[in-house]
Every structure is written in C-alpha cells, then in structure tokens.
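Recall the central idea of this unit: under ordinary conditions, the amino acid sequence of a chain determines the structure it adopts. In this exercise we apply that idea directly, starting from the sequence alone.
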Amino acid sequence: MLHIQTILHPTDLSEQSRHALHAACAMARDYQARLVIVYVALPPIMLYGAELAAGYPETFSEKAQAQLQRLELPIEVHDVERRVVEGDPADAILDVAKDIAANVIVMGTRARSLLGRIFAGSVADKVVRRAKCPVLTVSQPIADIAPRDQDHYARAG
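Accordingly, the structure predicted from this sequence is:
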C-alpha cells in the first residue's frame, strides 16, 4: 500500500493551482499526511533586470507570505505548513521536495501554446522530468472528493 507522509503543493495562486490544492488536501486528509504549500517568488533580477532590482521592495516576500496565509483550504487538513521561497520555480520546487522528503508533489498545470512549450517548457514539465518522487498534475476541477473508506481497504487486504 502506498505510504504518504508528506505532500508538497507548489502554488502560483492560479485557478489551476486551486484545483491541485483540492486534490492535495484530499490526499493529506486521507493519508493523515503533512501538507506543505510553497509559493515560489522570482528573484527581483529575473523580474526587473539588474538596474531595477536594487529598488526591489523588501516587503515582497512578506506580501507573498500574507497571500499564502490567506489561502483557504477547500478541505480541512490538520498538519499544514506554508512557505515562500525565491528562485527558478522548477529548481525551487525540487529543492523544497528534497528538503521535506516529499512522498508526492501535487501541482497544477495550465495549457500553453505549442510555441510556449517549445521555448519555455512548463514548470510542471520540468518538475515531472526531474522529481525523485511521484508528481500528480491537475489541470481541471476535481469533482467532490469523498474521504477514502479505510474499512474498505482493510477488508480488501
């Protein structure tokens, strides 16, 4: 039987991320696992260039953390940690996954144009290719997720 203790949910606070959050919360509830939600902030130099990065507000990380704290969970989870990290999104997600010994990564994915995939790829694609644990990508809303029937599995085993 699959044993899941720690679930990583990277979010960009988009609609696709909310769909994935729903799945991650359901898994955390069913496996009584720890859920780590991470938001990756791009470094100022990546967003603005070297000249403008010097004036980058120190409060960006605080604002991102506040947004993450306000993120409502669609399903109650008892052990939740929220983190804001900085860096290349795929690299940062993989670093956090290693740091927390994630058993699974549950992340949203969005449709990109063929040209966008060719030139930039997607964060989800990069994570799926390089992750050391399973990755569940979610692009659509998930219908009502009922709690897993533990008794059914006990009887079947």
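The chain is about 45% helix and 20% strand.
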